[in-house]
Backbone:
């Protein structure tokens, strides 16, 4: 009996030791978008835990706010629009982009059925998340592509993509910027896509993953482990459709199977890359966008905002070759 109690005590001690040995990893993301599938699946499949990370994933539905939370040290890795990241860095934030979840803008402009063209939006209301976010940048880009100045419309900040969708359904806006899976829901409800920024293939860090310089300097192994877990998450997403769709349903709260299937086909099959590579043309595009409001960006170089050592180490480790052999 004493032996059994003693063995049990050892087991409890070992479990407690294992838990205490795990390093805390708080991962923030800025919108309900299929672009974060690598993070979601890595968490749900336990890949962060297998790397000795006690991970917590946190939705903060605003890129600017997420950047601020990261600077405050309340998030260890943040995934947000590249323009918001660069803006914060130019304002003195000490962090670097270590990888991009996606390297292009992925948004569509959906409008009420009676609006047939982007040009019909002159003087009308367009819903975005926040000024300076990827949704805002996408809206302005689409307007310029159709010979409209952003000043020709009313851009309303609504906070989150779900709020944009809600405002469109309620009739309080005339058009809105949405991304999958929300845009598939808008389509099902009868709203019309009048511009696809995705099809315009504008290279852009959307989103980018950032880490504080202090963590890079003092805990680089933490980032290496995050990166390994992340690419395992992307691989699991690519090879296990059913598991991934469950993750999509969990984090997007979408329960419509057809919409979830479309979101999977769109992001996993076409958009998210095997590893979080950084497209430097996209970084320059983000910098050019930021330069419209922050003069210092005009003299900056995209290389000063990135740290590729973790991607380089990931490539040299052979993990990607092992996963995709």
Residues:
């Amino acid at each position: 009996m004493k032996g059994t109690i003693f063995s049990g005590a050892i087991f409890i001690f070992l479990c407690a030791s294992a838990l205490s040995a795990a390093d805390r990893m708080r991962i923030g993301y800025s919108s309900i978008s299929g672009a974060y599938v690598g993070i979601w699946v890595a968490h749900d499949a336990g890949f962060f835990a297998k790397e000795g990370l006690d991970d917590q994933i946190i939705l903060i539905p605003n890129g600017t706010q997420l950047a601020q939370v990261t600077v405050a040290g309340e998030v260890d890795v943040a995934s947000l629009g590249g323009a918001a990241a660069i803006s914060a860095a130019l304002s003195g934030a000490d962090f670097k982009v270590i990888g991009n979840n996606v390297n292009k803008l992925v948004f569509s402009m959906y409008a009420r059925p009676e609006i047939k063209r982007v040009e019909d939006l002159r003087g009308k209301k367009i819903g975005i998340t926040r000024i300076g976010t990827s949704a805002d940048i996408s809206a302005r880009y689409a307007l310029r592509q159709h010979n409209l100045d952003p000043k020709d419309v009313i851009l309303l900040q609504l906070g989150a993509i779900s709020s944009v969708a809600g405002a469109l359904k309620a009739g309080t806006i005339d058009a809105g910027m949405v991304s999958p899976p929300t845009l598939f829901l808008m389509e099902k409800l009868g709203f019309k896509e009048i511009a696809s920024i995705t099809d315009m293939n504008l290279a852009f860090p959307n989103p980018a993953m950032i880490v504080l310089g202090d963590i890079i300097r003092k805990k680089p192994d933490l980032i290496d482990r995050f990166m390994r877990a992340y690419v395992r998450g992307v691989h699991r997403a690519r090879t296990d459709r059913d598991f991934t769709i469950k993750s999509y349903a969990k984090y997007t709260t979408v329960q419509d199977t057809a919409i979830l299937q479309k979101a999977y086909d769109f992001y996993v099959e076409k958009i998210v890359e095997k590893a979080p590579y950084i497209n430097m043309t996209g970084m320059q595009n983000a910098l050019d966008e930021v330069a419209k409001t922050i003069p210092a960006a005009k003299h900056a170089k995209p290389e000063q905002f990135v740290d590729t050592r973790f991607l380089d180490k990931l490539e040299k480790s052979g993990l990607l070759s092992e996963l995709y052999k």
The chain has two domains: 22-104+204-323, 108-200. The CA atoms of residues 174 and 229 lie 41 Å apart. Residues 2-21 form the longest helix (20 residues). The beta strands are 23-29, 53-59, 77-80, 95-100, 108-111, 125-128, 154-157, 175-178, 192-196, 208-212.
